[in-house]
Write a structure and sequence with these properties.
Order of helices and strands: HHHHHHHHHHEEHEH
Radius of gyration: 25 Å
Number of strands: 3
Structural class: mainly alpha
Number of domains: 2
Oligomer: single chain
Distance between the termini: 46 Å
Helix content: 55-70%
Largest sheet: 3 strands, mixed
Number of helices: 12
CATH class of the largest domain: Mainly Alpha
Amino acid sequence: MHSQSIERWQHAHVFLGSAHARHERRTRFVVALTAVTMGAEIVGGTLFGSVAVVADGWHMATHAGALAVAAFAYHVARRHAEDPRFSFGTGKLGELAAFSSALLLALIAVLIGYQAAWRFHAPVRIDFAQAMWLAVGGLAVNLASAWLLRDCEAPRAGDPHASERESGRGRHRHHDTNLRAAYVHVLADAVTSVLAIAALLCGRFFGWLWMDPVMALVGAGVILSWSAGLMGRAGAVLLDMVPDPGLAGEVRARLEIDGDRVSDLHLWRLGPGHIGLIAAVVSDRPQPPQAYKSRLAGLGDLAHVTVEVHRCEGHGRQAA
């Protein structure tokens, strides 16, 4: 009887995204596809003399490694999802992988920029026709990979905030940052492929050989910008920043009724589509914690709610 009463109040701490398994499968497939393509671009771009194609190849090579990290993060998060050593589960492992990917993206941008700057001083002959085929092939692979990695995770059935996420507000709370990082990697590849194609066309038809390193520099700038944005998003989750100020305000509004006041409030992201909440309520007529939890029923992505209640005589009169 005693053990049954304890089990009644116990709960799991699995905070993985609802499409975790599908994202893991797609990421693994894209890793294999990227690895094959990057080998062709590095070898072919070197043989045909295009720094833009070589840059795209090395860019893709590092992305293959980053995508492998993303796939491994999915595997580890799933395997240890119920490991009691992780107090709030493994849902944030994706953010750790995404932050690492962002750092790698920044390094890629610096290396591409260095290689492009060096080519201004040491230009080489480019076989435009052959290099063009490689760049177009790389672009096709990148677009296919981006389509596979698009974040199409649907809101959970009955979620009253589904329309919010579709319109933009709260969208970042639900998305899988690990998948987003993989998507940004292949999208950055696609951009460098487009720039390489533009440079090759300008060189072939107008003789503007300087466009090859210029486009590589432009690509490096774009990648660096995306890296900064991804690092900020993943870092905010790792540092337990409030995922949505609007949600925090709504929590307070629901809890602060009839003189009850929230003295302490913590909101943080536990994983894709999962928000943790710890609140302390001060009241001169305190109710059981479950009564306050019921006020938050159906609110957003709240997945782990802890409410503590403190009696404070005369608090309601002071608040009035």
